[in-house]
Amino acid sequence: MTISLDLTAEGARDALRRAAPAEKPSLIGLTRAELGEALVGAGIVPERQAKMRAQQLWHWMYVRGVSDFAHMFNISKDLRAELDKHFTVARPEIVEEQISADGTRKWLFRFPPRGAGRPVEIETVYIPEEGRGTLCISSQVGCTLTCSFCHTGTQKLVRNLTAEEILAQLLTARDRLGDFPDRDTPDGAIVPAEGRKVSNIVMMGMGEPLYNFEAVKKALLIASDGDGLSLSKRRITLSTSGVVPEIFRTGEEIGVMLAISLHATNDELRDLLVPINKKFPLKELIAACKAYPGLSNAKRITFEYVMLKDVNDSLDDAKALVKLLKGIPAKINLIPFNPWPGTNYQCSDWETIEKFADYINNAGYASPIRTPRGRDILAACGQLKSESERMRKVDRLALEAMMIAGHGEA
Fold it and tell me: Are strands 140-141 and 159-160 parallel, antiparallel or unpaired?
């Protein structure tokens, strides 16, 4: 049975977050150096203490998961009061939390306007699996790419998310899943990295991450920092529709796993399905993939391929896909199409998908078919869209969905 928690009532919201006053800047998403500069700039810490205080705050925010200065117990009471006066580390507002029958969770977050004219909403999805838990994070409010099979793409881009807002999705998910150490865990105790409920993250939610490169880079470097959230870069996957100029930078400056939203093996069809292909055609995209820093059999690129009936699912398409990716250490994720109201596409027949997968497997590529997840809460790839921009809940609950799976190391 699906559980949907309506958090629009003030009392329900207060149980999940402490709303930060709009005028107070957040310390979440700042580098250590920026943390020190902020403290000195506010006049609450002398410059000689900035580095030490920044490290203290880093530990409380990213190791302990504290969202209230009052709980930073090795900082003096007076300094905690000054921090609270000038800054915030509070979580964003959760408008709604949905829990699927299979354990998949979806949160609708609300952030300040920050130039958008009104508060904005984005969605984040958590997928529990055997041996891992994957969090699908958004990088933009809406999307500019208008991929013809993607529901998210029907919502126009409103604005980019900040590094703080990207990290807030991870921090809040870990809060809600009980994935931070208990408050009474002794300071300095060794907190196990294994057994985490959020072990993997994928930049595959709303938006194109490489059109928000700097904020995404900053957030992912903080998420993978060994003295904080400490997620392995092999467990972080960034998915792009093919922003070629930023692909090399992703490997060189962030160093995470790469996924390409491919979906077609020729420019004519990809121009239709993924319009960014008109700007960065397949020849340029494949060249960028072959040049991806660190590419090897141990660090393969994942190619996403949505299965659309009578569009891209023939045996000839499978042969063309193998030929296109020749020489690239790769995994090919086959995604049965997720229906949404108003689409003209249909999902390929299961027998067709299996034959497609068999051919690719026999050619030497791993080609997992995604397992249905979050089918009752519209939590699937290509289906994320702000609540205020989406169909009625009664319509959503009837749709089947596929969820993100198989990204990063297990």
Answer: antiparallel
- Give CA separation, 385 vs 94, 143, 394, 395, in Å: 15, 10, 16, 14
Q: Write the Ramachandran bin of 342: left for phi over 0, alpha for psi from -120 to 50, otherwise beta.
A: left
**DSSP bridge partners of 200:** 134
Q: Which of 130, 101, 139 is nearest to 406 (CA)?
A: 130
pLDDT tens, residue order, the chain (410 aa): 445 555 545 555 554 444 444 569 999 999 999 999 999 999 999 999 999 999 999 999 999 999 999 999 999 999 999 999 999 999 999 999 999 888 899 999 999 999 888 999 999 999 998 889 999 999 999 877 666 556 554 567 889 999 999 999 999 999 999 999 876 666 665 555 667 899 999 998 888 999 999 999 999 999 999 999 999 999 999 999 999 999 999 999 999 999 999 999 999 999 999 999 999 999 999 999 999 999 999 999 999 999 999 999 999 999 999 999 999 999 999 988 877 667 788 889 999 999 999 999 999 999 888 665 555 555 444 444 444 344 333 333 333 233 344 555 55
Specify the pairing of strand 257-261 against strand 301-307.
parallel
Residue whose pair of structure tokens reads 């490169």 in the numeric block: 213
Distances (CA, A) of 85 to 41, 61, 165, 359: 14, 17, 21, 62
Structure tokens belonging to residue 199 = 């072990």
CB 168 within 8 A of CB 91: yes
The residues that are catalytic are 123, 381
DSSP structural state of residue 45? S
Report residue 242 as tokens.
Answer: 């093919």
The model's pTM: 0.85
In the DSSP assignment, the letter for residue 118 is S
